[in-house]
Amino acid sequence: MLTFTLKRLLSAIPTLFLVVAATFFLIRIAPGGPFDSERNLPPDIRANIERSYHLDEPLLQQFGRYLKGVVRGDFGPSYYYRDRDVSELIAESFPVSFTLGMTALLLALLGGVTAGVFAALRRNSFSDHAVMSLAMSGISIPNFVLAPLLVLLFAVHLQWLPAGGWRGLGSVVLPAFTLALPQAAYIARLTRASLLDILGSDFLRTARAKGLSRSQAVWRHAMKPTLMPVISYLGPATAALLTGSVVIEQIFQIPGLGRYFVTGALNRDYTLVMGVVIFYGALIIVMNLLVDLLYAWLDPRSRRRQ
Amino acid sequence: MNKHGANDTVGGRSLWQNAGERLRRNKAAMFSLWLLLFFVVLVVAGPWLAQHDYTQTNLSLGSTAPSLAGGHWFGTDALGRDVLARTLAGGRISLLVGLVATLVSLLIGVFWGAVAGYCGGRVDALMMRFVDTLYAMPFMFFVILLMVVFGRNILLIFVAIGAINWLDMARIVRGQTIGLRHREFIQAATLMGAGTLTIIVRHVIPNLLGVVVVYVTLTIPQVMLVESFLSYLGLGVQEPFTSWGALVNQGALEMETAPWLLVFPALFLAGTLFCFNFIGDGLRDALDAKSDEDGW
User: Fold this and answer.
1) B57: phi then psi, degrees, rounded to nearest 5
2) pTM
3) Do A246 and B233 make contact, defined as CB atoms within 8 angstroms?
4) CA angle in degrees (0–180, nearest 5) for A233-A298-A231
5) CA–CA dist A129, A114 (Å, integer)
6) Which residues is A14 bridged to in the sheet?
7) Under DSSP, is residue A85 helix (H, G, I), strand (E, B) or coil?
8) Nearest CA in chain B to A136
9) Are B288 and B22 in contact (CB under 8 A)?
10) CB of A145 within 8 A of CB of B259?
11) Which of A74, A57, A68, A51 shows the shortest CA–CA distance to A17?
């Protein structure tokens, strides 16, 4: 297990490096510099600004400087929010996104697994079809369509919940639910398919044969293997939640990292965009790593296969 | 088709006939198929059907509610543009992006997966390691980055979205190819002196058709979702063009005063995605001979 952990840890490093390099060079081949939008700057002032941001150095040297900074958690100064550091902006807004994302992930897991098990145990019944249709709607309705509709219903008409902002428990409900729904739907479908597969397996028949009731057999023997695909989906789920939170934070006016990212992208705030992409990349890589380790711990066979 | 239908003469039933029958029994999938066909015809014939041009503004008719008598069945937006015409025009872009980007991901994914799976060994390890590495990347953010760097260009959206989605395709195709590699007809082709590339293109890829068809139907809605997501953020399709995502974005801004601006494009978008997903699911079950009992 230790060698496996070390190996996986080491393999994450080149991926992370690739993310940083791809982001950095992609931004640098952009036509036009970050200060092009300013009113005609006198050339020497412009040169001064560029020097203060080290934009006059050779590209590789700039990359080295940036890489060194990233290793220390320093993403440089923001081009748009003058005298703010990108790391500062991230540190300030990420906790909000984290709370939102974690709430959504928990909701998705609880809702998805419950719905999936429920549907699988009542295979081809009316309730199975109803749950799975609901799951299909969850996947098919984009969350930026669902969000305004929910706001219209619960905030504008019924006035049960706030339409946006980030104050108090009530303001978490709508954004977390909208963010969680597509993931809950995927997890429900995964769980159902996986449990159906397991229900037909020999070891479960043996469990029934030795006298366990259906529900005992499912609880004691079927749940763990059923949840394995769900666990490996946690990595992609995290990525999807991060992506989704970009648009959800925009709609509900939540002061999280996703909103900074979009305004950064629209303002051509290159350092901010780079910082957020690298930060998100690192998060996804770390999550995938954790999922792999969890998987290997739960299923020793997958360790040997590596 | 011919190859699979060859045993018709002896009265057997091909895999595809069985699958077709199973699909026809799947009510949800068949309903989706007809509904989708209806959407597609409507959207493609849009310019001839709609009485108004989707870019034509008419400030005296700003934000009128839907009415049959007024000639604007879906109402008008704040600039007096006909929402029906705009919804159909947006659908053309959304569907086009869905098809083209899926084609891009199909070409890359099938070729990559087939080569990796057929060659095996070191080539396979290297190629799949590459896929794994890309898999761990925050792709959506790279696409947004691309949009920021290169401006909003429809062609770029096609390519960028296609370039994200080929990874799953490559993995699935590789798995299937490994299963095919040692089959007799491949050995026969090798024996007759066919080169690796010929075998992959002529013998491996045609046999992947079933999986690929299923996966394509499931990729199109994913791609459309990504496009609408980008357009929603204001990073996708730009005026005068429009797409369902862009229309939903504009509609959401005025939903309290003019809900029809949100409702109609949202219905079309969600409806189309729904259809594709149901058809894809139905096809998957239909092609999987084990799933005869399972309607879902």
Assistant:
1) -95, 155
2) 0.79
3) yes
4) 10
5) 15
6) none
7) strand
8) B274
9) no
10) no
11) A68
CA atoms within 13 A on the CB side of B30: 10
Q: Contact, B58 vs B80, CB < 8 A? A: yes
- Chain A contact for B193 (CB, 8 A cutoff): no
The residue type of A55 is: L
Q: How far apart are CA A75 and CA A19, in angstroms?
A: 14
CA nearest neighbour of A203 among A223, A228, A221, A191: A221
Rounded to a whole number of angstroms, the distance from the CA of A295 to the nearest CA of chain B is 17
Token pair, residue A114, equals 């419950």
CATH topology of domain B15-61+69-288: MetI-like fold (1.10.3720)
Residues 222-281, chain B, touching A (beta carbon < 8 A): 225, 228-229, 232-235, 245, 248-249, 251-252, 255-256, 259, 262, 266, 269-270, 273-274, 277-278, 281
d(CA A184, CA A301): 28
Give Cα A50 distance to the centre of its chain.
34
Could you read off the pLDDT tens digit of each residue along chain B, which spans 296 residues? 444 544 445 566 666 777 778 888 888 888 888 999 988 888 888 777 767 777 777 767 666 777 666 666 777 777 767 778 888 888 888 888 888 888 888 889 988 988 898 888 888 888 888 887 777 677 777 777 777 777 667 777 777 788 778 888 888 888 888 888 888 888 888 888 888 888 888 888 888 887 788 888 888 888 888 888 888 877 777 777 888 888 888 887 777 777 788 888 888 888 898 898 888 888 887 876 554 444 33
**Interface pTM, i.e. ipTM:** 0.75
Residues 6+ apart with CB under 8 A from B66: B72, B73, B74, B75, B83, B260
